[in-house]
Amino acid sequence: MPYSTEPTYTHGTPEKCAVLLLNLGTPDAPTAQAVKPYLREFLGDPRVVEIPKLVWWFILNGIILNTRPKKSAAKYASIWMAEGSPLKVHTERQTSLLQGYLGERTHGMPLVVDYAMRYGNPSIPSVLAKLKAQNCQRILLVPMYPQYAASATGTAWDVIFNELTKQRNMPALRTIKHFYDNPGYIAATVQNIRDYWTLHGRPDQLVMSFHGLPRYTLEKGDPYHCECQTSGRLIAEALQLNAEQYTVCFQSRFGRSEWLQPYTTTILKKLGMKKTKRVDVICPGFVADCLETLEEIAMEGKEDFRHAGGGEYHYIPCLNERPGWIHALADLVLDNLHGWLDKPQAAQLEQSRLRALSMGAKS
């Protein structure tokens, strides 16, 4: 296999370290034309849908991509921000804030902070090429998924490792697999809830809704379900909630097969039928608000609960750009960059350049 062309190299050029945040992705616009290729890429990923490839190809291309883009586009339009997709906007802001925090704490080390999306733009291959052009020889990969799932973190790794097979001069890599029980992440989530309750009062029930996966993923060894349960328990313990005051459940069921239970829609309808006076819902599996939180939970969830007879319904926003979360993210990153941030001295770089030139190097 031919390798991609390496950037022009000049001896004595300082190497940089990069932090690459990874998130799911979003269509470029809230239109059926933009949603269709995004869904094709997303639902065409064998990590996402584990159905025999030929069977799924006919279902995806013959049915889903002919009916779902228009419906999905309407949902995206209902939550679209002036700057663009909420997920992309918040991820860009998080990236910028993290760059600033790390710059202060590393005292100007040659560190690049960027982000990429598994599906859509900016794509992982394009951002890896951008980092290579900046001479980033060490890259820390940071999935913005607190809990590991093969269909989220795992598929991002697939793309990255595949891209590296095309490179002659590969960078050193480190990966953060998950941070579901990280004290900083838990503390930031708990403070987010407490701050909301300080302003709006406390609910009768706190619902913690995580993205759902097919039940067979748990049976085949995916740790996602267990990590979600652990996150939920740690959050509840920090809030001093008893078992009757909170529920951990799973949203976004797709298709007819059994998914991880209990389902969020079922829980909200049951709470509504019990005439629960107030329910607050938070999504600890997302660190940035997106379609699944702003439309599915904040809008559809409210309708399910209220239609079933419930009272007040409150959606607590994701961590987004909260300072406590960005500080926690910076701590997590620095813990995993240990030993990588040695700043080369200018004199050493110049000596290296001169030695290379004396041995016949052109630059």
UniProtKB/TrEMBL annotation:
Q: What class of enzyme is it?
A: lyase
**Does the UniProt entry include the keyword Metal-binding?**
yes
Q: What is its main location?
A: cytoplasm
Question: Binding residues for Fe(2+), per the UniProt record?
Answer: 211, 292
Reactions catalysed according to its record: heme b + 2 H(+) = protoporphyrin IX + Fe(2+); Fe-coproporphyrin III + 2 H(+) = coproporphyrin III + Fe(2+)
Provide the E.C. number(s) assigned to this enzyme.
4.98.1.1
| Locations listed in the record | Cytoplasm
Q: Which domain of life is it from?
A: Bacteria
Pfam families the UniProt entry points to = Ferrochelatase (PF00762)
User: Which Gene3D superfamilies does the record cross-reference, listed alphabetically?
Assistant: 3.40.50.1400
Keyword Membrane on entry: no
Q: Which family does it belong to?
A: Belongs to the ferrochelatase family.
Q: What is this protein called?
A: Ferrochelatase
Give the organism, scientific name. Answer: Candidatus Nitrotoga arctica
